[in-house]
Write a structure and sequence with these properties.
mainly alpha, Growth Hormone, Chain: A, 25 helices, 80% helix
């Protein structure tokens, strides 16, 4: 009897520890500070989408030209991702977060002082620098702070901050703009970040970065590309890329646009080859994947308030309510994607949620006026699945890079890919001319979501890298031992 009892005691399964108990107070503090900063990033970044019609009226802009003000932040994101990612690799994740939050806060406040289109465009570029650094630094900080098996949860829960910041912006818009000016909304963007900076100054550095930096100096993308002999040609390449992006947004003819796009692609491939070395194929493939992800998501995120006001004739309060449900859906979907990613794998979770989103795209824009509650429900479901899937995109991208240049690699590939966000609102506004704004957003959402499903579902970046490695191995001359064996 005692033997049986003893045997049973040794074979009974041990109750698993709940995932949240695996995290120390230090882990939760790191997450809270990063989440808060990301929420404030969402608040500051989306302000322009809420007041686009008011700004266009004040500065006498067409819809297409006004849409480039959304795109302006993406023009500078690639450089921000490169520079602040490299800063984070060299000096630590924590100071990079503080720098990024200060940049987008100052940029938001300056937008409230803009006197014309060009000044507002320039101040939006400052926000883009900070947003790129925020994404790079916060995502890397939290992913490296949490246990490896919980990192999809870390990524998804972190990115839930962005849409909730957007919800706060939408509610603030309804309270402020009808009673004052769109400028006041931007000035308010600097207030909440004081708390985030306060918290971040007291955060510990990530253990993973600390251990690695003690052994060897992390790779700096900026040092690789813009110092020494390479600076002589990489600085002009960077200027050419930036100018080409700018002119693409200035409503060029189709042939000119195609030439400029080819120039931009060549510039960034050249950077990737120099920075990533033999990993350049996976870096370029990840840039393309992220670019397509922004092209399906950002027409909706950037032009939804304009669509609600111009085609459905919503007042500021109704716009705010619609964005509330959309933002909550986005946040819930981000968290859900994190849990699904840890349970079933990152790619399976990502692709499954994108497939589900395809069922909601067309119904959202098929509804006309007078279906307010139905639209709320559909926006919740659409953003919860389609946008929520992006909650684990940082985990998917960063998983392709080694620690030594993870932050710079994530920041550069993600923020170069984010140029899709620059193209998205302009492309949506242009397609609205022959179609309608709602139809244009739906067409872009359906087609580009399908492309991302293929890229992620078949893990095209990893396949491209394996193919390149195999070709390199086949082309490599045999070693001395192999020649002697022959």
């Amino acid at each position: 009897m005692s033997s049986s009892s003893s045997n049973s005691a040794t074979t009974d399964p041990v109750d698993p520890v709940p995932w949240y108990r695996e995290l120390s107070p230090r882990d939760w503090k790191a997450f809270a500070a990063a989440w808060l900063g990301y929420a404030m990033d969402g608040f500051d970044f989306v302000l322009i989408t809420l007041v686009l019609t008011e700004v266009a009226q004040d500065f006498h802009l067409s819809t297409v030209t006004a849409a480039t003000l959304v795109s302006a932040a993406f023009v500078s994101r690639w450089f921000g991702g490169l520079a602040i990612g490299a800063f984070g690799d060299r000096f630590g994740r924590r100071p990079a977060m503080v720098l990024s939050i200060a940049l987008y806060a100052v940029g938001a406040a300056l937008c409230g002082f803009a006197w014309d289109y060009w000044s507002l465009f320039a101040f939006r570029m400052v926000i883009g620098l900070g947003m790129a650094g925020e994404y790079t630094a916060s995502a890397t900080y939290v992913i490296e702070s949490w246990p490896a098996r919980l990192r999809n949860k870390a990524s998804g829960m972190l990115l839930s901050g962005y849409p909730l910041g957007s919800v706060l912006a939408a509610k603030t818009y309804a309270w402020v703009v009808p009673h004052s000016s769109w400028r006041v909304l931007f000035w308010l963007g600097i207030i909440p970040v004081v708390l985030a900076i306060y918290l971040r100054k007291r955060l510990p550095e990530t253990k993973e970065w600390t251990e690695f930096s003690a052994k060897e100096r992390p790779v700096s993308a900026a040092a690789v590309l813009f110092t020494g002999r390479r600076a002589a040609w990489n600085l002009p390449i960077g200027v050419v890329a930036a100018l080409s992006i700018f002119f693409v947004l200035r409503n060029q003819t189709l042939p000119v646009t195609l030439v400029l796009v080819a120039v931009i692609a060549a510039c960034f491939v050249a950077f990737a080859v120099q920075f990533a070395g033999r990993l350049w194929p996976v870096m370029v493939a990840l840039m393309i994947t992220v670019f397509c992800a922004f092209l399906y998501s950002w027409p909706l995120q950037s032009l939804l308030p304009t669509y609600l006001k111009t085609e459905l004739h919503y007042d500021p309060g109704q716009v705010s309510d619609a964005l509330l449900y959309a933002g909550i859906g986005y946040a819930a979907g981000s968290i859900l994607s994190g849990f699904l990613g840890d349970r079933f794998g990152t790619r399976r979770a990502y692709v499954s949620m994108l497939l589900a989103s395809l069922f909601f795209v067309w119904p959202v824009f098929a509804l006309g006026e007078g279906h307010t509650v139905a639209l709320w429900v559909l926006l919740f479901l659409l953003l919860g699945t389609g946008q929520g899937a992006s909650g684990i995109l940082p985990k998917y991208v960063s998983g392709h890079y080694p620690v030594r240049f993870r932050a710079a690699g994530l920041g550069f590939s993600y923020n170069v890919g984010a140029l899709g966000g620059a193209a998205a609102p302009v492309l949506g506004a242009k397609l609205a001319a022959p179609l309608s704004l709602g139809t244009a957003i739906a067409v872009l959402g359906l087609s580009l979501t399908a492309v991302v499903i293929v890229l992620v579902g078949f893990d095209v970046p990893a396949r491209v890298q394996r193919w390149a490695d195999a070709r390199h191995a086949a082309a490599k001359p045999p070693s001395a031992e192999a020649r002697e064996a022959v």
